[in-house]
Design brief:
This is ABC transporter ATP-binding protein. Belongs to the ABC transporter superfamily. 33% of the residues lie in helices and 29% in strands. It is an alpha/beta fold. A 6-stranded mixed β-sheet has the order 6-7-8-3-9-10, with helices on both faces. It starts with a strand and ends with a helix.
């Protein structure tokens, strides 16, 4: 049976001013799967997430989400269709406390998580409810950033390097949250540098080089393809 495709990116090109960054990238994210974008620094992973979200002004090609073409739509419309983006820098407001940060984005699509459900997923956040953004650890900030998009009702989560700079025990917690979200039916597209972590959460991996997807590796073939992956990533 062909997996049901939630997001289909085809021949995606993206430009920052005169710089041509994505060169005809194509890949698919099946509904209910966790999919990673792997690749060296500068391969175009972050730009891909930003292009999906409509945050790169000049993009060409096709990005179909649940039957709707996203190229040409502004970011707020794309968010309202049910896509949540968690940027690498996390975007936590330093002067707001945890609850205020959680309440900030509007609920864009029915069926978002309640605060109670978010606290079940991230018990730390309940304890830190009145702490301002600046007082949170890196791990707590990451959890808050993910919790915040879960409140909106997004069903496709775009996560940019959620484990970056976090201690191993926190990385494991993020991993278990991602697996729980998958069990709950969320679809996740994850940019990762940590390919060991990626192998513990993902169903498939796309490898990016020079602005395009050059390979797809199902997670169960990752061990067999490890040498190729090391070449791609230069590790
Ligand atoms: P990294 O892990 O370093 O973020 P990446 O694969 O996510 O790598 P991108 O951040 O998508 O790569 O960057 C791809 C290319 O686009 C790089 O050459 C980068 O310098 C360039 N780039 C990124 N943002 C901008 C911008 N705002 N203006 C111009 N060029 C940019």
């Amino acid at each position: 049976r062909q997996a049901d495709t939630l997001l289909a990116v085809a021949d995606l090109n993206a430009y920052y001013g005169e710089s041509h960054i994505l060169h005809g990238s194509s890949f698919e994210v099946p509904r209910g799967e966790v999919v990673t974008l792997l690749g060296r620094n500068g391969a175009g992973k972050t730009t891909t997430l930003r292009a999906i979200m409509g945050m790169v002004a000049d993009r060409r090609g096709s990005i179909v989400f649940d039957g709707t073409e996203l190229v040409g739509l502004p970011s707020n419309r794309i968010a309202r269709l049910g896509i949540g983006y968690c940027p690498e820098e996390r975007g936590i407001f330093a002067s707001l406390d945890v609850e205020e940060n959680l309440l900030l984005p509007p609920v864009v699509s029915g069926g978002g998580m309640s605060m109670e459900q978010i606290f079940t997923l991230f018990p730390n956040l309940r304890e830190r409810l009145r702490s301002s953004g600046t007082r949170l650890s890196g791990g707590e900030q990451q959890m808050l950033a993910i919790g915040r998009i879960l409140r909106t009702g997004a069903k496709l989560l775009l996560l940019d390097e959620p484990t970056e700079g976090l201690a191993p025990v926190i990385v494991q917690q993020i991993g278990s949250v991602i697996r729980t979200l998958k069990e709950q039916g969320f679809t996740i597209l994850l940019v990762e540098q940590n390919f060991h972590f990626a192998s513990t959460v993902a169903d498939r991996h796309y490898v990016m080089e020079n602005g395009r997807v050059v390979d797809m590796i199902p997670n169960d073939q990752l061990a067999d393809r490890e040498d190729a992956l090391h070449d791609y990533l230069g590790v």
